């Protein structure tokens, strides 16, 4: 994987966390209730952060 792909994947992850997570949390909180929406958001953040971490740092392993 080249450096350009790693930067692109990292940028997509950052855009999701900074731009899309706020409306997702607000609208899911209105429909699901605040507690359930928080659990859903935390689960999504953990999964996406793990995926971005593995993809970005996999290059440095080998």
SSE layout:
Elements: H1 3-32, H2 34-61
Radius of gyration: 14 Å
Separate helix tally: 2
State the helical fraction.
over 70%
Task: Let me know the largest β-sheet.
Answer: none
- Could you state the order of secondary-structure elements as H and E? HH
The overall number of domains is 1
Query: What structural class results from the helix and strand content?
Result: mainly alpha
Shape: elongated
Can you count the beta strands?
A: 0
What percentage of the residues does DSSP assign to strands (E)? under 5%
Q: Mean pLDDT, rounded to whole units?
A: 73
Low confidence ranges: none
The termini sit apart by 11 Å
């Amino acid at each position: 994987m080249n450096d350009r792909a790693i930067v692109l994947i990292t940028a997509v992850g950052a855009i999701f966390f900074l731009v899309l997570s706020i409306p997702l949390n607000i609208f899911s909180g209105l429909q699901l209730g605040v507690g359930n929406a928080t659990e859903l958001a935390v689960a999504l953040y953990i999964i996406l952060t793990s995926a971005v971490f593995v993809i970005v740092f996999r290059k440095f392993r080998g």
